[in-house]
């Protein structure tokens, strides 16, 4: 095992073991002790800049170039959003580049019988071979309008939460209709998304053009796109070729556009600036200390425990039924859970890190002071922090129920029997109050639409939920008593599945055909105990969340009034641009370099035989002819990225694409709450590696020539003639 990998595994294991038993009190005491010495930084709130509040002066002054409106427009129009990820145009002919993991499921979707494109890779050697992706789309942000004043005018004098929500949705609808009509001439497929910035302190309307004819052009093999596998996730150094190419079509022809990034064949070096453009998922950097403490003490530990237990259940099932597990895509489900589990562990680590909490505490102190020093702000916003703390205290009072019922209705990781129970209770309640026949028919169909897990998987997931009841609600709670009728979660789950009519879809349909499950059905007592407890929790928690959202909106508004555009808003899965510098980092007593090279994949493959995560495909086992193994493969920077930034282009001041963001290191998981460039790095596939792989391993001359010349080639043979 290499030094890097050993220390990476040691770090993660240390964090995991430590957090399984960590408590809040020591961290709170440390924060108090550090409060007098640790100070908030200028960019603690991050650098996820919006395009409507573009940091033109900051970029221009810091990086010595003219970041004018035209520069930001080119950056915005060339970068696009795809389902769950980001991408960018890299030719005037609609060619898009993104991460392989962003289109992994789509590669499987277009794979024909016997092809196995996910494992074997895909390359369309002609335009005719580029494969349409069913149900896929690409969104390009074509216009933005600040509608804050319009929204707040509609909310003026509306106090009740439900009334405010109705007023907000009504004005949103008016704005969407107005802007949709205004921009309809640009394209037929226009849609408008309302974006709440600063927790609703500001509102913007984003106008997107949606392309729905998107085709797969090229995808590497899964083993190369996901080289290192789950063990390497959230780690660095890395050696993944995580890239794929798509093409947007318009009226059946490659989409012609003036907005695309030039291909950065020269790359960047340590110390160079890069700008990463994409759609980072929601962050919580504007939360109060009281909210952070709730996350630390209740929410994130509950989520971490749920993720760990469900990952274990799927792992046990996969070990016992490997063929069935492969058929059901259990491996990818486990990766998703593992990815989320590592993220939860990283977040909890951040919430127990003295520096993080002390800096956040100082930032809150500064905002409180600014409010207190202004009579106008005090009159409008005084007392918000105390009110938010009260909401968090009441939420914490529901903490046990939150953990016990977390993701109860999950269709993927939840018990199907429990979902049928809850749905059946809703049906029975509606029928008892005389609901119309069409309503009852919809509810009945909802019950019957719940399909089956394999028996062994259902038993494990049901037992995991019963264990949740016992752990969080206690053995004396009515829900736990009726669930654990056979003593243990495992035995009780097996007994319930063996005797209840709601255990399978077929039995449920048979029972409903005769009216309802028999009075002796063992699911009925549990339903009678579970549904009121679950419903009461949902109502109470939803009310508190509504209060919290309103308070957060006002806090966001005052923060904008105090700091203006100097503080970037939390991420909202909407287009952002962030700046960073290519730079390695110190960790665990060693130095992670800014770059890795192709030498590394061969070091891992041949130095660790038997490790499937570092196994090369047949195409790559011998270095392809002409490949320079010293070519940079992956690199890191201090850019402020997050989930949703996968596939984001990293570009230079000249807007040349030099990398594709695909991950961040485990130290960067603190970015949910704070941006600390000394801790975190985003990880990118180097454009030089992409070009080298296309050229020497995949013989994809058609793509290489299009990237370098901007010309689209009908066939590979046509591109070959140009290259010769």
Features of the shown structure:
eight-stranded mixed sheet, alpha+beta, eight-stranded antiparallel sheet, 724 residues, 4 domains, Thrombin, subunit H, disordered N terminus
State the gist of this model.
The chain is of the alpha+beta class. Strands 1, 2, 3, 4, 5, 9, 10 and 11 form an 8-stranded antiparallel sheet that branches. Strands 12, 13, 14, 17, 18, 19, 20 and 21 form an 8-stranded mixed sheet that branches. A 3-stranded antiparallel sheet has the order 6-8-7.
Helix and strand arrangement:
Elements: H1 3-20, H2 24-34, H3 56-63, H4 69-78, E1 79-82, E2 85-89, E3 95-98, H5 104-110, H6 117-120, E4 122-123, E5 131-132, E6 138-146, H7 148-155, H8 161-183, E7 190-197, E8 202-211, E9 214-219, H9 222-225, H10 229-232, E10 244-250, E11 253-254, E12 262-263, E13 273-278, H11 289-320, H12 322-327, H13 330-351, H14 354-372, H15 375-381, H16 384-396, H17 399-405, H18 416-432, H19 437-448, H20 455-473, H21 478-483, H22 489-499, H23 505-513, H24 523-563, E14 576-581, E15 585-587, E16 590-592, E17 595-597, H25 599-607, H26 618-621, E18 632-637, E19 649-651, E20 656-664, E21 682-686, H27 687-697, H28 701-709, H29 716-723
Parallel strand pairs: 12-20
Antiparallel strand pairs: 1-2, 2-3, 3-10, 4-9, 5-9, 6-8, 7-8, 9-10, 10-11, 13-14, 13-19, 15-16, 17-18, 18-21, 19-20, 20-21
Helix pairs in contact: 2-14, 7-8, 11-13, 11-16, 11-17, 11-20, 16-24, 17-20, 18-19, 18-24, 20-22
């Amino acid at each position: 095992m290499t030094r890097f990998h050993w220390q990476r595994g040691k770090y993660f294991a240390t964090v995991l073991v430590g957090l399984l038993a960590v408590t809040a009190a020591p961290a709170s005491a440390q924060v108090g002790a550090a409060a007098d010495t640790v100070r908030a930084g200028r960019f603690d709130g991050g650098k996820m800049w919006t395009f409507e509040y573009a940091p033109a002066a900051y970029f221009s002054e810091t990086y010595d170039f003219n970041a004018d409106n035209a520069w930001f427009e080119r950056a915005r129009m060339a970068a696009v959003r795809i389902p769950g990820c980001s991408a960018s145009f890299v030719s005037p002919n609609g060619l898009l580049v993104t991460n392989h993991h962003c289109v992994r499921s789509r590669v499987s979707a277009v794979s024909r019988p016997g092809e196995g494109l996910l494992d074997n890779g895909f390359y369309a050697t002609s335009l005719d071979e580029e494969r349409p992706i069913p149900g896929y789309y690409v969104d390009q942000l074509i216009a933005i309008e600040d509608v804050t004043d319009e929204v707040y005018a509609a909310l003026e004098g509306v106090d009740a939460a439900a009334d405010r929500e109705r007023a907000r949705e009504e004005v949103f609808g008016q704005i969407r209709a107005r802007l949709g009509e205004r921009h309809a001439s640009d394209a037929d497929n226009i849609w408008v998304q309302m974006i709440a910035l600063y927790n609703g302190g500001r509102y913007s309307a984003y106008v997107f053009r949606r392309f729905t004819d998107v085709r797969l052009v090229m995808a590497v093999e899964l083993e190369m796109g996901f080289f290192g596998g789950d063990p390497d996730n959230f780690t660095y150094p890395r050696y993944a070729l995580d890239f794929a190419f798509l093409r947007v079509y318009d009226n059946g022809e490659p989409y012609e556009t003036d907005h695309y990034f030039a291909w950065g064949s020269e790359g960047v070096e340590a110390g160079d600036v890069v700008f990463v453009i994409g759609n980072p998922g929601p962050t919580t950097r504007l939360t109060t200390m009281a909210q952070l403490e709730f996350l630390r003490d209740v929410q994130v530990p509950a989520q971490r425990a749920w993720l760990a237990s469900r990952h274990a259940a799927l792992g046990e099932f996969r070990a016992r039924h490997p063929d069935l597990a492969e058929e059901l895509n259990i491996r990818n489900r486990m990766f998703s859970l593992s990815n989320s589990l590592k993220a939860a562990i990283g977040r909890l680590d951040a919430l127990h890190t003295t520096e993080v909490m002390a800096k956040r505490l100082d930032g809150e102190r500064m905002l409180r002071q600014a409010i207190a020093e202004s009579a106008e702000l005090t009159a409008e916003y005084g007392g918000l922090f105390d009110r938010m703390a009260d909401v968090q205290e009441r939420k914490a009072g529901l903490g046990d129920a939150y953990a016990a019922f977390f993701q109860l209705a999950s269709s993927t990781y939840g018990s199907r029997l429990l979902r049928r129970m809850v749905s059946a209770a809703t049906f029975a309640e509606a029928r008892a109050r005389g609901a119309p026949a069409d309503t009852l028919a919809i509810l009945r169909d909802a019950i019957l639409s719940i399909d089956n897990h394999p028996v062994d998987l259902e038993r494990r997931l049901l037992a995991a939920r019963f264990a949740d009841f016992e752990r969080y609600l206690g053995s004396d709670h009515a829900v736990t008593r009726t669930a654990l009728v056979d003593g243990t979660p495992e035995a009780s789950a097996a007994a319930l599945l063996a005797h209840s009519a709601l255990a399978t879809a077929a039995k449920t349909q048979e029972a409903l055909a005769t009216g309802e499950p028999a009075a002796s059905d063992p699911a009925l007592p549990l339903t009678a105990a579970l549904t009121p407890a679950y419903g009461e929790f949902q109502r109470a928690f939803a009310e508190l969340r509504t209060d919290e959202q309103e308070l957060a909106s006002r806090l966001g508004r005052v923060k904008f009034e105090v700091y203006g555009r100097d503080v970037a808003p939390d991420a909202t899965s909407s287009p952002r641009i962030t700046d960073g510098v290519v730079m390695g980092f110190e960790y665990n007593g060693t130095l992670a370099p800014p770059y890795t090279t192709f030498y590394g994949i061969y070091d891992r493959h041949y130095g660790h035989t038997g490790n499937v995560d570092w196994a090369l495909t047949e195409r790559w086992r011998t270095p392809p002819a002409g490949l320079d193994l010293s070519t940079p493969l992956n690199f890191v920077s201090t850019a402020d990225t997050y989930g949703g930034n996968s596939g984001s282009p990293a570009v230079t001041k000249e807007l040349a694409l030099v990398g594709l963001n695909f991950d961040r290191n485990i130290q960067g998981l603190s970015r949910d709450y704070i941006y600390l460039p000394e801790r975190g790095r985003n990880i990118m596939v180097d454009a030089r590696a992409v070009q080298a792989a296309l050229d020497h391993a995949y013989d994809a001359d058609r793509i290489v020539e299009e990237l370098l010349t901007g010309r689209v080639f009908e066939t590979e043979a046509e591109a070959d003639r140009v290259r010769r």
